[in-house]
Amino acid sequence: xxxxxxxxxxxxxxxxxxxTERLGKLVDNLYRxxxxxxxxxxxxGVKPHNIQSIKDIQKLPFTxxxxxxxxxxxxxLAVDMHEIVEIHTSSGTTGKPxxxxxxxxxxxxxxxxxxxxxxxGGTTKHDIVQNAYGYGLFTGGLGVHYGARKIGATVIPxxxxxxxxxxxxxxxxxxxxxxxxxxxxxxxxxxxxxEKFDMSALGIKAGFFGAEPWxxxxxxxxxDKLHLLAIDIYGLxxxxxxxxxxxCEHQDGLHVFEDHFYPxxxxxxxxxxxxxxxxxxxxxxxxxxxxxxVLRYRTRDVTxxxxxxxxxxxxxxxxxxxxxxxxxxxIIRGVNVFPSQIEQVILAVDGVEPHxxxxxxxxxxxxxxxxxxxxxxxxxxxxIRNLETIERKIESDLYGALNIHTRVxxxxxxxxxxxxxxxxxxxxxxxx
Length: 432
Ligand code: DLL
Description:
Elements: H1 5-8, H2 12-33, H3 35-44, H4 65-70, E1 84-89, E2 99-103, H5 104-120, E3 128-131, H6 139-151, E4 154-156, H7 163-172, E5 177-180, H8 182-194, E6 206-210, H9 216-226, E7 229-236, E8 241-247, E9 254-256, E10 261-266, E11 280-286, E12 297-303, E13 305-306, E14 318-319, E15 324-325, E16 330-332, E17 335-337, H10 339-346, E18 352-363, E19 366-375, H11 377-380, H12 384-402, E20 407-411, E21 426-428
Parallel strand pairs: 3-4, 3-5, 5-6, 6-7, 18-21, 19-20
Antiparallel strand pairs: 1-2, 7-8, 8-9, 9-14, 10-11, 11-12, 12-15, 13-14, 16-17, 18-19
Helix pairs in contact: 2-3, 5-6, 7-8, 8-9, 10-12
């Protein structure tokens, strides 16, 4: 289902014209009103009149998370403070948070792009949306909330956590749409199994999962266990929150809402813009944001762009589901490894659960990667020798996929900590 055909199916020439107009206005405004961007543009020797077409975006400077932190809290504001109606921030676990300040117009755009997102999985005003993303400064909760309200659906703002209550509400309130992190959806499925209630009888038609990396294998697992269509949704605080891109029912790449967010892929080392189909770092420019607009934000997320026609009828460029992050990329004995590659391999093996953790250590100057994976209950009761066979098989599959030796350890069911929000998969002891 397409929420806004005018924009989502706009032919390429029309989209580029719109993007050109919007970029021109944005750059003019930023140069006049935000000293942070004026300085960056001056340093790069680019003036607003140099930006005549969307292709000229490559002349503009990049913006990094660290730079945004340096001007905390209000250095990126492009409007007067009294025009700001809401503020969200990134988690700030690794330093000062990044502040995203929204005008009323920004909240309207956010509601619109989230209405588009929820419509991809067929959400209508007749649906009951259980929103288990965290409410608060995190953008997941309110982002989904605004989109569901825009569509006119019923929102249950339950927020994250309290699994027993989530399950009771899923059942009693006849939830038809679920929104939460992919790892939390599996935790819900686990809880349902313990309480012996049948997820397939619930009638949840779609789930909107994002905010953390997950693989196609994990999607299959979620769809099988929760009996729903699992849609991958993408976004980040610095840009708007969720609502930057979403899969459609064909689950073949995420449609970028490029009338608002302009995507580019660059080589993270050189900053060179890469052609469609080549993997690199995703860079996004907010074309319409008023409160805290962002020029060429380096997301550190790794993906590639694809422009082939999608059977859903949307004409937008699609980004492949995220392949990893430049900063989550583990370099094990010189080999670049993304956790999603490991997930893809381990979840294809029978007898293991989609709960795992990667522990990296350095012994005698050599990196060692231990992959801890939970076995399922059935395997747990089998004989030790079987476990070893499976461990060796996963090690060999991982070697085939990554060309590095790993140590795989099957651990007891439920021994890996569960998260109600984003899962923590990597423990890198090398930095400690
Ligand atoms: O996680 C916004 C969001 C909320 C997206 C709910 C989707 C659903 P941040 O906390 O700022 O914002 O984290 C952004 O999370 O740069 C990615 O690395 C990661 N991420 C977000 N969506 C996905 C996804 C929200 N679908 C960071 N797949 C991003 C993989 C994702 N990683």
